[in-house]
Amino acid sequence: MSDLEIYAAIDIKAGQCVRLTQGKANDMTVYSDDPVAMALEWVDQGASGLHVVDLDGAFSGKPLQIAILERIASAVDVPISIGGGFQTRTDIDRAIQTGADRVVIGTGAIGDPYYMNDLADVYGSQLAVAIDARDGFVQVNDWVENTNLKASDLASVVASCGVETIIYTDASRDGMMRGADHETVGEFCNDVPCKVVAVGGISSPDDISNLKGLGCGNLVGVVVGKALYEKQVTLKALQAV
């Protein structure tokens, strides 16, 4: 398979660069009060791109940190994905005009397949859908509600709507720095036709080796967060793999 793109995570809450543990708003660590400086740091260290999440937007249902996205986009020259509360074409258009290369929408949009089809037709590769899962089953409502819907089944619905890329997050591993569950990622990738960017637990070069070793041609990237902020691993070490 080709090289994986390695995206550094920039999660923004109240104007600060933070990381949550397993998506819990009450388990948050602040790493910087300047997300733009943090973005520049990761790009300088070799990030293939940035994965920006507007946490305020995610919790409120409407993006609230577009101004910071614009500052980040003006400062760096790598691809930027952004998610967090994007539901309408107006919000998606604004993010793209501001500098996002790809906008990530939540699975709530799947409730209206016609709308999802419309978004996929309009935005193509500039659109991605986030699927958050625990033990292979979809989680909703900011990861506090489990469902009996398999993540791969939801991904099939997303693919049938014409969406090209899925951001697949293992909620049980996110922010835990205990390694990616590469077997589950591999099963997910084998079950879906979309491109997949994996999120959750990636914290060492071995994680990259294991994910590449799956041989999944549709696994195109990974997002690394807390392990970078806690200096458990460097982008240089991950890129070397």
Characterise the protein shown here:
- With 241 residues, this protein is an alpha/beta fold.
- The chain has one domain (5-240): TIM Barrel (Alpha-Beta Barrel), CATH 3.20.20.70.
- Helices cover 36% and strands 30% of the residues.
- The protein contains 10 helices and 12 strands.
- The chain has helices spanning 35-45, 55-60, 66-75, 89-98, 113-123, 151-160, 182-191, 205-213, 226-229, 235-240; strands at 5-13, 16-21, 24-32, 49-54, 80-83, 102-105, 127-134, 137-140, 145-150, 165-170, 195-199, 219-224.
- An 8-stranded parallel β-barrel has the order 1-4-5-6-7-10-11-12, surrounded by 7 helices.
- Helix 8 links the parallel strand 11 (195-199) and strand 12.
- Helix 1 packs parallel to helix 3 (66-75).
- The longest helix has 11 residues, at 35-45.
- It is globular.
- The model has no long low-confidence stretch (mean pLDDT 90).
